[in-house]
Amino acid sequence: MIDTLKQWKEQYALRLPVVEDDNKYDKDILINYYLAYLALLEPKELKKESISNVQTVLDYILEQTIQAFNSANLFCGPYNDCEFLQGLAKMVVNDTFLIYIISRENIYELFIEKFILFNAVCESTILNTIICSSLYTIIWSISFQPEYSMKLKSNDKLISTVEQRVKNQSNDEYALEMKRVAKGILFNLDYLQMEAQATAVDPNSDDNQIKVMVSYAHRDVTFCKKIVTELQIHFKGDIGVDFNKLSVSHEDDWEDIAKAISQCDVILMIVTENYCSSKSCRREVIHADKRNKRMIPIYQGNDYKVEDWFEIRAGSAT
Known about the structure:
globular, 2 domains, two-stranded antiparallel sheet, 4-stranded parallel beta sheet, Rossmann fold, single chain, alpha/beta
């Protein structure tokens, strides 16, 4: 399906004349294309997109999002706001797109306002739930940006809203996902601390071994298992790696991950496109960096160039 959409874009969309402000027909065609494209695209592929390729349609999606928010029924034309926000929530995995979006006049403030509002009404309809879930993803992405983290932390209402979401006991699919993301936001903003408790150390105990935590993306499990197998042969320290998180029933328990980071001496990171595209992996790196942990990256192949955020966070700790 992705290949079909790309082929359509090459044959039709790129031949469109320059999209003028009054050329609504062409803009609607591009929105249809990009909403479908974003729904199918993997994050690592989206990170390769250039802002110059999507700026026009992104501006239009933002305009439509604002209009939908201002309407009584949350629709703009044939689209509900949840459809625009789902697309934007996919786009913010690309840091360049995210900064472009929230740098637009009043967009950051709009997202914060609607985030707080829809948290209060998100269970009333499925569309409101999707809007709220998408806004959680957007706020989570913003919380990774150092220049915006202080703004988020200074908003007491927002922090209170996120903290209440963490306490939510619903087992609904969307509720569980929002709870997981809420924890990620609070950890990024240092509102949840899961430090290891200090304990007395027996000098004759195996606990004096170097403790290594292996950090990896779920999709790289095969490569990760090969690395761990080799480590177990040649390294006599304590190797910690969680393969249970691959099971469907396993909840992404960030408290356990944070505790493992706090207790380890070294973090071995299997750095791939999947790793740098994962918000969960990114928050592990941030948590480790804030605690001055020694980080050792392992790169799969020679051609992959890591993203700037990883170099900034992990480069000085290797």
